[in-house]
Design goal:
Length: 522
């Protein structure tokens, strides 16, 4: 069939139900199970008991959230959807995401905070970028002021009582709760009083949690206004708390954690999950009874494993490596245990230069390259430490014609990001019409299966070029009997796939770097 299918024949068969998808970034099944067992997550517990609950997995290297969320939304791997890492944007996409499939049939959709939605396109509904957005562009355009409040670091320095009053008026008109705005104001005040910020080890993370509450209020406002057929909301702060506070929750393998640290910070990750559960409850309370609610994570987290080799407990000092690059066109993001390097404004000359540069970095004493290097796509390199090197302590690294102490360029993972992505410990919950009730999957499901399953549960065709399949164990047998899974060749349009990739400007690249630092990836 292909892209020339009759849209009207499909849209007429789509069931009269809505989909509300909440992306729970970094949520670990192991932690969810632990807290549900202690009755600490009432909203999630109810969804599990009234729906189907699964362990989701993937084997992406690197375990990078933009790649994973795009794979979830498309049902396809990066070789098909085009996203390779944190430095991509919507111009890099070569596949339709699920809300774009709903939209092409004329249904209203709403998306809040999904990765790789900046810059957004005009749609029937709303699309508000949040995570890693580099400008105030959104749709409808009048809500761009929220980016100024949550992402524009320069704006914080320009905040005055008059300006704050203007934001207050716009927030109230946009459904922002008074309590949320007051909490935001307190956050700005803390940044101007260093003593208040120093009360917490990683006080800057609280601004990410605050950002989610602002977007929660706006999402509810827009959800009630547009009543989208498909809606998505993203919760990211649990991922960030897990990056920075995991060692205080599970201190065993960490050498620098003190008993006092555990007393002060040991509940931080658990508290983040509880806050996320309250936000989930706030959002789903506005859903109709005919709404399929989906909760999914891109990955879970695990502790550092000290029983492994130095290559598993060490990472690079990313800023120092970038300083070694004299041309300034190398992007680096670290997702332990891998390092992802991409070339900006790729040309054949740059590709040849950086291949030579990366392969030339070696451990002097061993006379062996520091990295095992895989070119995953033109200008995109996956770096892992060379496991033929028995140890790195006290050795020297030759890079760019100069010798460095290993400690100048490398660091212990514990000092970088104690919480480590675990692609085998994600979650998936489906609750609502058509979903089995009180069902716990015995086998893990793939993240590629999520979009095909949602489409099937709406009686929409699954594309044959998707890498996933329908999770029949999640769907009531009676439903599948009445609405058997349908297929088409593809939802893609080759002309759209060939759209030109746009690189980030220097200012956008700097902005993205600061955001990646705050999220724990740089």
């Amino acid at each position: 069939m292909g892209i020339n299918f009759a849209k009207s024949s499909i849209s007429e068969k789509v069931l009269d139900k809505k989909v509300l998808f909440i992306g729970f970034d970094g949520a670990s099944k192991r932690i969810i199970d632990r807290m549900v067992g202690r009755r600490e997550l009432p909203a999630i517990e109810r969804l599990i008991n009234t729906g189907a609950y699964f362990h989701s997995t993937h084997s992406f290297r690197p375990c990078a959230s933009p790649v994973i969320w795009t794979s979830i939304a498309t049902g396809k791997g990066p070789e098909k959807h085009g996203i390779k890492g944190f430095h991509d944007n919507t111009y890099s996409l070569r596949a339709k995401r699920i809300w774009e499939i709903f939209s092409m049939f004329g249904f209203p959709v709403g998306v809040m905070g999904h990765m790789l939605t900046w810059p957004p396109e005009e749609i029937n509904g709303f699309i508000i970028p949040s995570i890693l957005s580099l400008g105030r562009e959104c749709y409808p355009e009048e809500y761009g002021f929220l980016w100024e409040l949550t992402h524009d670091a320069g704006n914080e320095k320009r905040i005055s009582p008059k300006r704050m009053l203007n934001y207050f008026s716009r927030c109230l008109d946009s459904g922002i709760r008074l309590s949320t705005f007051l909490e935001l104001g307190l956050g700005f005040a803390k940044k101007r009083v260093p003593f208040l910020e120093d009360l917490d080890k990683y006080s800057f993370i609280s601004s990410i949690s605050m950002r989610t509450k602002l977007y929660r209020d706006l999402f509810i406002h827009l959800y009630r206004k547009f009543r989208p057929k498909y809606a998505y909301f993203h919760i990211h702060f649990v991922d960030t708390y897990s990056h920075y506070y995991w060692q205080y929750m599970e201190p065993g393998p960490y050498r620098k954690v003190t008993p006092d640290d555990v007393r002060r910070y040991g509940r931080k990750v658990y508290n983040a999950y509880r806050n996320a559960d309250r936000i989930i409850q706030d959002i789903i309370s506005h859903a109709d009874s005919d709404t399929l609610i989906v909760i999914a994570s891109d990955h879970g987290f695990r502790s550092l494993d000290r029983s492994q080799t130095w290559a598993d407990t060490t990472t690079i000092r990313a800023q120092r490596f970038i300083e070694l690059d004299k041309t300034g066109d190398l992007y680096i993001s670290v997702i332990v245990p891998t390092i992802h390097a991409t070339i900006r404004n790729l040309t054949p000359e740059k590709a040849a230069y950086y291949k030579t540069f990366l392969h030339s970095i070696e451990v002097v004493e061993d006379k062996k390259p520091l990295f095992e290097i895989q070119e995953t796509a033109p200008g995109s390199f996956l770096l892992e430490f060379n496991r033929e090197i028995a140890g790195i302590a006290g050795k020297h690294i030759m890079a760019g014609g100069k010798s460095y102490d290993a400690g100048e360029l490398l660091m212990d993972v514990e000092d970088y990001t104690p919480g480590i992505h675990d692609g085998e410990d994600g979650i998936l919950i489906l609750s609502g019409p058509g979903a089995k009730k009180n069902t716990r999957g015995k086998e893990p499901v793939s993240i590629f299966d999520i979009t095909p399953t949602i489409l099937a549960m709406c009686n929409m065709p699954v594309a044959k070029d998707m890498d996933g399949s329908v999770i029949t164990d999640a769907v009531e047998e009676e439903f599948l009997g009445k609405y058997p899974v349908q297929y088409i060749d593809t939802y893609e349009d080759q002309n759209e796939k060939d759209s030109h990739r746009k690189e980030l400007s220097d200012e956008e690249a700097r902005n993205l770097k600061e955001q990646l630092k705050s999220l724990g990836y740089f």
